[in-house]
Known about the structure:
GO terms for molecular function: flavin adenine dinucleotide binding; oxidoreductase activity, acting on CH-OH group of donors. This is Glucose-methanol-choline oxidoreductase N-terminal domain-containing protein. The chain has 13 helices and 22 strands. The chain is α+β, with helices and mostly antiparallel strands. It folds into two domains: 239 residues, 3-Layer(bba) Sandwich (FAD/NAD(P)-binding domain), CATH 3.50.50; 197 residues, Cholesterol Oxidase, domain 2, CATH 3.30.410.40. The longest helix is centred in the last third of the chain and has 19 residues. The two termini are 29 Å apart.
Amino acid sequence: MKNTQCNYLTGRAVGGGSVINFSIYNRGNRKHFNEWGSKNSGWDYKSVLPYFRKSEKANLRQGDSGYHGHDGSLSVEDCQHYHDATDVFLKDAGQRGREILDYNGKNHVGYSTVHMITEKGRRCSANKAFVKPSMGRENFEILDHTLGTKILIKNKTAYGVEFIRDRKKYRATASKEVIISGGVINSAQILMVSGIGPKQHLEELGIPVVQDLPVGETFYDLKVFPGLMFTTNISEREPDVEQNIRDYLGGFGLLTSNIGISGIGFDNHDIISDDSHAQYLFGSGRAEELTEFFLDWVEMTNETWQALAEPLFGKYVYAIYPILPLPKSKGTVKLKTNNPLDYPVLDSNLFSDNHGDDMRRMLTAVKHILEISKTSAFQSIDAKYESGPLPACKDYKYLSSDYWICAIKQLTYPIVEGVATCKMGPKDDNTAVVDNKLKVHGMDGLRVVDASIIPLSFAQPAPTVYMIGEKAADLIREQYGDL
């Protein structure tokens, strides 16, 4: 085994989830940050806003003054492509008394075109924004095609990591501390493989227990229901591939969008309170263009997709996808074996909350979206729900509440934008893994800095992860000075 010293280790892809996610910039409701900060000093909205601004290079048509940064590395801009149907989405919201606003600004509940983590229509990943500009630093090194396999620990003090590269095992030692940033899944995995985790689970796998902590026992994931697509009377020309490419090279057009998503709304309709509002993503396009996404990414069966989409083929459709913040259903991330090369076991445990609040809220959101399709704005484009009954739900009256509950169970999927597997909380919180300084409870020289420490699932986590990184840098400087 070889010894080395280095500053950073990476996995197979630099940039993590930011190279494959939907690039939606949604910080979330300030009330949820204040809830976070109520038990973790320094994490309320007022305290974290400067760090959101610090990372951001905003170029927005309507950005609230004082809420956005313009000198950071992360490019945030309005979506560079949206169809006339998006205007209908916003017009309808205005007619229903919903505010059209900067949802990452002063207020959050309302409607808008989507803010995207893109630059001139192109994805701005963590790699592009933060890593590449730092490549020339003498104190910065990246090892590609590298997998961290274990945290080196002595007397409950982390002093390095073990990793594999080119089928060889190495050790990297740290002079001050070890920082784990593997994300909501891999950070939990490497902690547990190293002996930091639930005692019983580790002992069952023959892993010596270093620190008994609830790693992986809380896994909150956003979930989306993709079954609400509506036909319109909008006529659409056949796609011009060459023109689409020219548009993209110019920084705009269809190829700058994510499966046609262009609008976003946060609504507190009926029993959905302001604290637990529904998030609506609005997208539009030709129905057949969505086939690959639903079959490959969502892994919908052909039979279900045909029932859902066949009546829509050849027509221009819009979809409103409801996403529920603050889910009460709690999943887990567990080790399959004690081998760090084996994938861990994820259980999103959707709709498992004892009182059925998550299902009730999703059903309310579905019914609300159906009602929205009947408003004057959407009827101006002849919006209709024409999907056929799902094969698994034919025993229920079509479009009844029981039918929709069945459909929600069949189609809802976790976005895998999870949080909380290494949840932040005070020492006396039996669900917490790290403290408000990002340090692992009961350990020295070990921090976790990624989405896994976020205690609540309230928004797409990418913007918050960048904020965490900026704040972590200050916490480290506070302890050690400029390194």
